[in-house]
């Protein structure tokens, strides 16, 4: 099992200030509570749909183009891959935004400003 490295106290912070900031952080965490299971499931659903919807739209548009304008190349496959790429970028955007929000919130709790 790996251990997380401990946060080094800022220079000049006394033991009383460290204990006070940790106590404040714990009280905020208790008031806020742990994220509900429904929040996690909702986030998984959001990320799933953010990938699935552009993929399905790309495939549908590709099928329509293949039926209307038959050619040697498959529009369905090309637009399916384009939709999948757009969906993955969209999911990456959501996850990075949530991660940044969590880090900002943790930094505010610690009294740090980024």
TrEMBL record:
Keywords: Membrane, Transmembrane, Transmembrane helix
Transmembrane found in the keyword field: yes
Claim: Membrane is one of the keywords in the record: yes
Transmembrane region(s): 36-65, 77-95
Top-rank taxon, per record: Bacteria
Region entry Disordered, spans: 1-31
Pfam families, alphabetized: ATPase_gene1
InterPro entries: ATPase_gene1, ATPase_put
Official protein name in the record: ATP synthase protein I
Organism: Pseudomonas cuatrocienegasensis
